[in-house]
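Deviation from plan, reported transparently: 2-acetamido-2-deoxy-beta-D-glucopyranose complex.
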Amino acid sequence: MLPMTIISSLIFFTAISASALEPRAKVDGPCTGKSGIGGVCISTSSCTKDGGSYISNACPGTPDDIKCCTKPNCQSGSQSGDCRFTDKCTGGKPILSNLCPGPNDFKCCITNSNGQNLGQLILAKAKTAEGTPYHWGGGNCNGPTGGGYDCSGLVSWAICQVTGRNLFSEGLRVTRSMYCASESKLKYKKLNFADRRAGDAVFFGGKCDCANDPEGIHHVGLMMNSGYDMWNALKTGTKVRKDNFQNWSEKPCPKVIRF
Ligand SMILES: *[C@@H]1O[C@H](CO)[C@@H](O)[C@H](O)[C@H]1NC(C)=O
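Because the crystal trials were delayed, the predicted structure below was used instead.
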């Protein structure tokens, strides 16, 4: 009996170690897809729904319907790129949401935006609204509402147009919500005002005190340079335009948001 036991355990352990040598994939994890392009292991239905294509046998160890999905072309307006894991989209390239299949960290990495960063693209989009009237509460993802934009409506609209991200539905559209949100909720960095550059969001509101007076934070615009020019929907009676705040009695808040 003893030799038989040894033989069967040998067979058993050989089987285990052979399968352990095969690379294993995870659902929502990376894989190598069609033409050797990096992809994501997801269900075939969610792959095709979002315009991807898949190959079989590239996500070993996952359920039958999970396959390696790739989407080598994604675009929004004049910007285009490919879908990849965001940690592979380096060098400050813009990352656009809602254009790729799969999990939240598999996104459209923009490779042709002429070296412009995301803030510059958002500013450029906001500039196309030049002359639109200010309207309190105005703006959504698609454009002006009630005949115009208010300050945060203009900024949130431009973000939505460029990135596909909807701050209106995320509860971040109101100026104070935007300024006071944590970086993790915002998914954008906050930097010191001194480090501002074109495309950053700049805020106004007294002491800009999120803990004690969030209501006081009342205005947001987009920096046009590292000085004091701001593109914005300022107030009732004005139209979307450039303003210079260098000599305003109200000073900007200590932080800017970088997109
Ligand atoms: C702000 O005031 C300074 C000093 O008086 C002046 O040099 C500058 O041109 C002013 N800026 C604007 C935009 O009016």
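The longest helix spans residues 2-21. We consider this an acceptable substitute for the interim report.
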